[in-house]
Design a protein that fits this description.
This protein has about 400 residues and is an all-alpha fold. The chain has 22 helices and no strands. About 70% of the residues lie in helices and about 0% in strands. α17 packs parallel to α19.
């Protein structure tokens, strides 16, 4: 009898302890307790654990505590809090995130900018641009431009103003942000996309004459996203860019406008400036490589194909110097001696490195000899370049 009572007592005690542990566990994981730990626990690891638990709560539960945590002195906590608020889509947190941006190290500002981009509040433009200014060189460029591009049509006016900022990176990233906004709006609201394009295209075109190559390059890329025919003539003029990489980008972007650009590009083959003629040939080569089922674009592609074929038949070295990628990708063996002669007569380092890495042994050998003759070093890349013989 005593043993039965003892068993019952023990079972009751165990059940009571289980309930007590369950209650304690519930208290430890309650939003109120987690918020208390996040705000006041001296151990950063425990604060981070509480933050992670709050992040798991549905909806905006725990959002107030996460907003308070943006001011935490441990740099990892505000970054994690901002990411959590973005994940929870707490739109009202945008102002609070922007307010603590300057207190973070440059890398932390990138993380907060990404969170602001996810929240999509147009008022975040100044804070993100401040984060751009805080970076060294091009650190975080992709993340910052993407963040600006997610801020929606309400950010367009602020970014257009930033196109005239004294900081070259701000000008460049603002152009990229405008391109990103229009790209994202297409398919969501064509009307808003058209309005943003109409407002942005001329100010972005003006940046094609910016003194900084980075700005010119990002402006050209943005014009590719805006895809407004008004950009064609300024891009053709910019084919004379003294920076080879910038000129290459201008030519590539022009190939996005086959219908609108093909005739002006053909006309540009007679331009007085050799860089413009070469760039026009490069853009025509890019158009000739295009694949479109639309009748109007097919007609433009056929025109470009005719020009690149004629350029080779006439042994027009100036044209070949621009369109050499087309001949490489089409594996035209009759072009080999003409490509090599063009490299010797009009080549540059970019052409030589393309030859070296395209997978054709004759062109690779010609590139090495050109580099030796000109006292330059050309880089042989693992896996070759992006342009392959016959691909």
């Amino acid at each position: 009898m005593k043993s039965r009572r003892l068993v019952i007592l023990m079972l009751g005690l165990a059940a009571g302890l289980a309930v007590a542990f369950a209650v304690m566990r519930w208290i430890e994981h309650s939003p109120t307790h987690l918020a208390e730990v996040l705000a006041h626990d001296p151990d950063p690891a425990k604060r981070m654990q509480a933050l992670e638990e709050l992040t798991k709560l549905p909806g905006e539960q725990g959002a107030d505590a996460l907003i308070v945590a943006l001011s935490d002195k441990d740099s990892s906590i505000p970054r994690a809090a901002a990411a959590a608020l973005a994940q929870k889509r707490v739109a009202r947190a945008a102002d609070s995130i922007a307010a603590v941006m300057s207190a973070q190290a440059p890398s932390g500002q990138i993380d907060l900018a990404k969170a602001l981009g996810e929240l999509g509040d147009p008022k975040a433009v100044p804070a993100i641009l401040d984060a751009v200014r805080a970076q060294e060189k091009d650190a975080g460029e992709s993340d910052l431009v993407v963040a600006l591009g997610k801020l929606g049509s309400g950010a367009v006016d602020g970014l257009i103003v930033a196109l005239k900022d004294k900081d070259a990176r701000v000008r460049a990233y603002a152009a990229g942000g405008l391109g990103g906004i229009v790209f994202q709006m297409r398919g969501q609201s064509e009307e808003k996309a058209r309005a943003a394009t109409a407002a942005a295209v001329e100010p972005v075109c003006a940046l094609l004459q910016d003194p900084e190559a980075l700005v010119r390059q990002r402006a050209a890329d943005a014009l590719g996203s805006l895809h407004d025919p008004r950009a064609v003539e300024p891009l053709i003029a910019a084919l004379a860019d003294p920076d080879p990489k910038s000129a290459e980008i201008m030519a590539r972007v022009l190939s996005y406008f086959p219908r609108e650009a093909v005739d002006p590009l053909i006309a540009a083959l007679r331009n007085d400036a050799f860089p413009v003629r070469r760039g026009a040939a490069e853009a025509l080569g890019e158009i000739a490589l295009s694949d479109s089922a639309q009748a109007a674009e097919r007609a433009a592609i056929e025109k470009a194909l005719k020009e690149v074929d004629q350029g080779l038949l006439r042994n027009n070295m100036e044209f070949i110097a621009g369109a050499y990628v087309y001949y490489i990708r089409h594996a035209q063996y009759m072009a080999l001696p003409k490509l090599i002669n063009t490299l010797d007569a009009l080549g540059d380092k970019r052409m030589a490195e393309t030859f070296l890495n395209c997978g054709n042994p004759e062109l690779a050998e010609a590139a090495k000899q050109w580099a030796k003759d000109n006292g330059l070093k050309v880089e042989e890349r693992a896996g070759g370049s992006g342009y392959k013989w016959g691909k």
